[in-house]
Amino acid sequence: MEHLRRHDFVVGLRIHGAMLAIQAGVPAMCVTHDSRTEELCQTMGIPYVPVERIMSDNLDVSRVLSAMEFNPDEFDRTRRQLARRYRDVLSGSGIRVPGGLDRIAGGTSCDEVSEELE
User: What is the pTM of this model?
Assistant: First the structure.
């Protein structure tokens, strides 16, 4: 993560690199090359562009970057909701929830998350 903080923007084929960059406070985008990676990006709110679109539209870097949309508030909200669900699964299984996960989750149960989504 420290290395990524030295960059203005991160683009790559690996979702983990994009996730780390965003956690480090650096805008990032994933170039998806399969449905699994694209679904992970959609679920977690990671900005992405399918590699097929880059190839078919002959997009260059500046056009890809200008087309990118990222809502940091929505990303944080999604991250919090997913953390709450994960925390509830762990605690419901009798597994101790790490403090870091509880901090990300914000101390609200999944039932409250469902109410937020409605």
Answer: 0.71
* Cα angle, residue 88 at apex, residues 82 and 93 outer, rounded to 5°: 135
Buried b / exposed e across 80-117, counting CB within 10 Å, b at 16+? bbbbbeebbeeeeeeeeeeeeeeebbeebebeebeeee
Cα 81 → chain centroid: 12
Kind plus residue range of the DSSP H or E element containing 34: none
Q: Could you state, in chain order, the average pLDDT of each consecutive group of 10 residues for the chain (118 residues)?
A: 90 91 91 93 91 81 76 87 94 91 74 47
Instruction: Kindly list the distances between the CA atom of residue 55 and the CA atoms of 51, 59, 95, in Å, as whole numbers in the listed order.
Output: 6, 7, 46
